[in-house]
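Try this one yourself first.
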């Protein structure tokens, strides 16, 4: 059996103390956004880092056959309200909760029924061991989506600063306050 020596124990304690003093691990913007994804109902593939990087973000897992689908209207209103101030909004279609129709139908719901103009991406898994790396990183920093229309507010460095479950509507005072605070740099 190995018995640590005094120098080994001292090194271990100093390393642990340094890690604790450093605070929580900082987000890695590449871990969050350096992924290629296909746009919803399109053959166009974009790199999320090039498309969204360096901006405050609102990232949302979506579904088109869900009791929360009406939130597309509020999300579009947020996009219209805050785009000029630098907020980028992106929706990620998912069928993890068995609430998505086929991709063509999802696009119709988003673009025709709700007039969505923010970035929407083709279906990806958003929770569990199969979660896309984007959502695995969001879960690591906060928590995995509990249902569709989970919303993550992310700063320019890729750090989740607020997380809103499905029941929190985009037009809620809590969401607007969090967005305003992020955009003001507070």
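Now uncover the answer:
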């Amino acid at each position: 059996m190995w018995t640590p020596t005094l120098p080994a124990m001292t090194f271990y304690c100093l390393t642990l103390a340094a890690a604790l003093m450093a605070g929580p691990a900082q987000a890695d913007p590449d871990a969050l956004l350096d992924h290629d994804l296909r746009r919803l109902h399109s053959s166009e593939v974009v790199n999320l880092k090039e498309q969204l990087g360096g901006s405050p973000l609102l990232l949302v897992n979506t579904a088109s056959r869900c009791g929360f689908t009406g939130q597309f209207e509020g999300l579009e209103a947020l996009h219209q309200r805050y785009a000029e101030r630098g907020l980028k909004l992106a929706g990620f279609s998912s069928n993890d909760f068995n609430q998505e129709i086929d991709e063509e139908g999802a696009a119709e719901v988003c673009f025709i029924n709700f007039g969505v103009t923010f970035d929407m991406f083709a279906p990806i898994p958003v929770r569990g061991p199969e979660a896309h790396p984007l959502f695995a990183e969001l879960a690591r920093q906060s928590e995995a989506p509990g249902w569709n229309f989970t919303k993550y507010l992310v700063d320019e460095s890729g750090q989740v600063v607020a997380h809103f479950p499905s029941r929190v509507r985009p037009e809620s005072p809590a969401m607007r306050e969090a967005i305003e605070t992020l955009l003001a740099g507070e």
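Discussion: The first helix runs from residue 6 to 22. DSSP finds seven helices and seven strands in the chain.
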